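USER:
Class, as today's exercise, take the chain set out below, and explain how the chain folds.
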Amino acid sequence: TVSGPIGPSAVSRGVIAFDVTDLTVRDIKLRGFGVGVQVADTSNLVAGTSMFEEPRRSRRVNIDQVEVTQAAKQGIHVRADVFSITDSTVSYIGPSTTSPHAFSTGIMAVGNACARDGNAVFGGPPVGEGEIIGMALYKAVGCRVENNTVTFNKWFEYGRNYGIWTRPEAGGMPLVSNNFVSGAH
């Protein structure tokens, strides 16, 4: 178990890896932080921000049996090609106050040739008019999102929440099947 700062302004990471190939993060519990697990590329970090642009250089990343709780911004964030996120649990994510209308995401991923299977996300509240997303997937050519559970315990007066959000790249759609979503807008 690894614990970090808890609260809506937390920005640190529990596990961070840049420019990796053949990485496995398995059987770890993370509590707090801004982001529980982050895998990305130094080549596309926009100077002076925490924003990323293409291309993705990390490849063959496996996140398995990871538990993240009380992260302010994101539980698991992966930007890679050929990756899997399996049998992991993300709970009590958000709110993040890193911007006036910040959104939080349980599991955020950008990439192709991927699988998300058997995960559980229990969402928290957005900030202001922000959003909270259980699972987000961008690009997604050759990806599967199956057998996951996303639960929000209440509707929010302000902001919105989404169970599973996909924004596919031209040329392919992810397979989204056999998932359970509860309490989402």
Residues 76 and 171 are 26 Å apart (CA to CA). The chain is about 0% helix and 55% strand. The longest strand covers residues 21-31. Residues 48-52 have pLDDT under 50 and may be disordered.
